[in-house]
Design brief:
It is built from seven helices and 13 strands. The protein is of the alpha+beta class.
Length: 271
């Protein structure tokens, strides 16, 4: 890595206009490797308790696998795929034993100390990568309306208001294996921002709006602003909301001649 960088981060969660919270979000710092972090978000579905059990299982599996992960020797993509597969299996077992139908989306990204970043997702929870406010990439939803967009039958704007916009074609906990889509950012640089959020957030914003917000505000300010604005735009019909923002910033040396650590991660703030 040519320049020393630091991570500024925030997570946020709100139950919206629902009676109960089924989303879960976490930003985990590796217990042994400085600068290695895992962001994971899950949007649970399946009745009052089923959805929460599903998203809780995603979090538990993520913590267990991340604690065992070594950025020096392990394959990051294999670890993320295992996260999806293992959480899916346990959620399926929960469905069998509890007579519920728990399901969950997942959107997770792993940042290694060298500055490479790896994503995985299943369902319609998203990950965005912005560079100086401009969207460089985002995940493609595993949903019915995304398939229509991909075939050119409707536009992205029309997909947001489509009557079947909430139908997923793949997620964790279904009878069939979940789709597992990965992506890699080879090197993060100052000006990069990673945003992961559930549909309760992204449904109310264009990529341009999201890019402008995360570019101009701190992660904590952006988290609070996006939740507040989504609540207003939902007009009393909003879903659960969850998001995590990680901003890459240049690490300024306080004293000349003393090189900074190659990658510094301050504690994550929770909005």
């Amino acid at each position: 890595m040519s320049k020393a960088i630091r991570l500024s981060a925030s997570t946020g969660i709100h139950k919206g206009d629902r009676e109960y919270q089924q989303d879960q979000v976490a930003l985990l710092s590796h217990p042994r490797y400085n600068g290695c972090v895992l962001a994971v978000l899950a949007d649970g579905m399946g009745g009052r308790s089923g959805g929460r059990k599903a998203s809780d299982q995603v979090m538990l599996t993520a913590k267990q696998l991340f604690e065992r992960y070594s950025p020096e020797t392990d394959d990051p993509v294999a670890m993320l795929k295992s996260l999806v597969q293992e959480a899916h299996i346990v959620i399926r077992l929960t469905a069998i034993t509890s007579e519920q139908e728990p399901h969950s989306t997942i959107a997770a990204f792993l940042i290694n100390p060298r500055g490479d970043c790896h994503w995985v997702h299943a369902g319609d929870s998203r990950i965005y990568h912005f560079q100086n406010g401009r969207m460089m990439h985002r995940t493609s939803d595993h949903s019915y309306v995304q398939a229509l967009v991909d075939r050119g039958e409707i536009t992205e704007a029309e997909a947001n208001t489509h009557p079947h916009s909430n139908i997923l074609v793949g997620c964790l906990g279904t009878e069939s294996d979940p789709p597992i889509t990965t992506h890699m950012v080879h090197q993060l640089h100052p000006g990069d921002v990673l945003l992961s959020c559930s549909d309760g957030v992204w449904h109310y914003f264009s990529p341009t709006e999201l890019g402008s917000v995360v570019e101009s505000l701190t992660p904590r300010e952006a988290t609070e602003f996006l939740i507040e604005k989504a609540r207003i735009r939902a007009r009393g019909t909003g879903d659960n909301l969850s998001l995590v923002i990680v901003k890459i910033e240049a690490l300024v040396e306080e004293k000349k001649g003393i090189p900074p650590a190659p990658f510094y991660t301050p504690p994550a703030a929770t909005a």
